[in-house]
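Rab-GAP TBC domain-containing protein
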Amino acid sequence: MKNGGSDPVLESGEELEIMEPNGIELGHKENVYEFDDLVNGTDVDNEDAFRTRKRPDKDGSGQVSVMEVIAADEKRSDVEYELSQKEINLEKLRRIASMGLPDGGGLRATAWKLLLGYLSPSHDLWEKELTENRQKYAMLKEELLLSPHTEIAEQIDRDLLRTHPDMKFFSGESSFSKKNREAMRKILLLFAKLNPAIRYVQGMNEVNAEADSFSCFVRLLSDSVDHFCQQLDNSPVGILSTLSRLAELLKENDEELWKHLEFTTKVKPQFYAFRWITLLLTQEFNFQSILRIWDSLLSNPFGIQDMLLRICCAMLLCMKSRLLSGDFAANLRLLQHYPDINIEHLLRVAQDLSADTSSYSLSL
């Protein structure tokens, strides 16, 4: 299969990063990621707020066709119509979101809140729900953030400084970026307080605005939080079990590639997919691609983990020819530095895979 990407480059003297479960040192620490578009009124197309590292177009033209503009306008109209209904049809919203939500205007923010179960389908209840949830969050902050654990606070502060240093929303000394970092700090500290068995793990610094984002962040991690708990590694809900399900999914869809990775080159899923799964692919793609991927993750009726494993498997299938011709070092380098790829093609491959054998679903 054509991957549409360029060869990864390994600089002279650069070491391969071996990812081990619970190793925490996940590599690429300077290139962090975020849980975006949950900020009320934030337009992700705003160049001043979000300055992303855009990868070059494959054809170099950078032009958008008239048909693409028309399709984007139609999609925006569809989303606006669905979100304006008195009773939101979640099944229809999931179908629309699975094809990608439009940027800007707060549409993705509202849709994600609905898909995560933070807002109910009944439009008339939104104002009441938001008011109550924001009041609960304010009370939690008042009760639990008076004396944050110093070590955890210091670790969070270090990670926040690394969060998208090329985006004005997060970095710099402006009052705007400082306010956003402080909001993220409170969210992560509160999450650590409420989850003492897990506390804070490097890689959770991917949220923005406070009250709504906190609740959505908790819901987002609800089906994968066990991946961060070392005591559960070997349990049915631990990271090793999830990595095993990925291997099973690959075997079911392409036994040749599975055998090559598993036995010939011995590139085990924990060497590359540990980061893919625990960080929800946020370090493997550019910012806009991550938003598109998360549209599919959150809209999947069988849960985030089901679609996440499908995408991870598709990432392997889309690199099949290169992986079959590679040895341990080449394949590890390729999978730890995943190349540019057409995201829509990747998601189509993921959607068309045989049924996920993991039967892992998210209950909100």
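thats it. The chain has a mean pLDDT of 80. The chain is about 50% helix and 0% strand. bye
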